[in-house]
Design brief:
Biased composition (Low complexity): 34-43
Structural class: alpha+beta
Protein name: SH2 domain-containing protein
Pfam family, one: SH2
Domain SH2: 112-203
Region (Disordered): 34-63
Strand content: 5-15%
Strand order of the largest sheet: 1-2-3-4-5
Length: 209
């Protein structure tokens, strides 16, 4: 039986060469301690190094932080560019609307003005009208006339263009003649002898407003 046991090797750290023998548990502990002391094996009392077993934490260096800041700034730059384009588009649309309104008013003013009508012809056309009926006459560039029926006859009032604004008599300025007419359909005319008249109906053959 002893010869059969000798055929099995014990673990290498427990070997006692040249003859393999069975060691007691006490001998195993002593041999393991001696091996650890001599540096030939791990010390049973030494815990494993936490540095070797701890998971590696990724380290963000300065380049990564700079890249993040650069990307963050690009986002803000992009948003600023979008806002700038949006404001530019809005301004362009507002300018187009203002220009369209100006064109429409200019066309309406052209339709309101009677051409080749003098004072005498205007008075004849207004003679059978009601109080406040009026007629607009063209008098040349940047000038027109308002003829209207008052309580004491026909009145003729100058309409002049000053600083790109139209003024009837000595009243406030308006962006167009049609705007002034709309205003004085609700408010008395600022002229002497009008007896606080407001405009009633236009006898202009081209258009009525």
């Amino acid at each position: 039986m002893k010869d059969e046991e000798d055929q099995y090797d014990t673990p290498w750290e427990y070997l006692a060469r040249p003859a393999s023998i069975r060691l007691s548990s006490a001998d195993v502990r002593v041999h393991a301690f001696n091996a650890a002391a001599n540096g030939s094996g791990p010390s049973p009392s030494t815990p494993p190094s936490p540095a070797n077993n701890s998971p590696r934490v990724p380290h963000h260096n300065g380049a990564s932080c700079q890249q993040f800041a650069h990307n963050h700034s690009l986002v803000h730059i992009g948003n600023t560019a979008v806002e700038a384009r949006r404001h530019q588009r809005r301004d362009c649309q507002n300018k187009e609307r203002r220009q369209r309104r100006m064109d429409e008013r200019q066309i309406l003013d052209e339709l309101l003005l009677e051409r080749n009508v003098d004072r005498v012809n205007a008075e004849k056309r207004l003679a059978g009208g009601q109080l406040g009926d009026y007629l607009l006459r063209a008098r040349g560039e940047n000038s027109a006339a308002l003829s209207l029926k008052g309580t004491k006859g026909i009145l003729h009032i100058k309409i002049e263009k000053r600083d790109n604004k139209w003024i009837i008599g000595e009243g406030p300025s308006f962006g167009s003649i049609s705007s002034a007419i709309h205003h004085y359909k609700r408010h008395p005319l600022p002229i002497r002898g009008s007896d606080h008249l407001i405009l009633h109906n236009s006898v202009t053959q081209a258009i009525r407003i």
